[in-house]
Fold this protein.
Amino acid sequence: MSVSEGKGLLPIPFKCTDTITQYKFVTLDVTECTKTETVVEQADVGNVAEGTKIIGITATKTTAANQNVTVNMGGVCYLTVNGSGTEIVVNDRLKSDASGIGIKIAADHDEVGAIALVGSTTSGEIIPVLVKPYTLHEE
């Protein structure tokens, strides 16, 4: 799969705080951001936990800190998911687990990062999703 695959993508380059894996959720690293540089981190980089606000999905990967990584902040792209514990079906809202992998939301006040465009019952499967970060507030 190439970086350009997808529809209506909004790919933005960011500096990373550590090694970043392709097709995973990322968030802003607020401790590293400056007035001139925005920095992202993957959920497995230590101080980011489930429920952290997602800004997008990585389209590229890095091999070390301080490299540029492309993040899709809108449109249709690919995401690594885990549908083995709780099955993911079309139109499910997905959030990040503690390692940036997409999982089906379980609570009514979760941080949604994407909408599944196909289902999955497998761990580590890469599926197409609609990138749509928002906070879910259902009553």
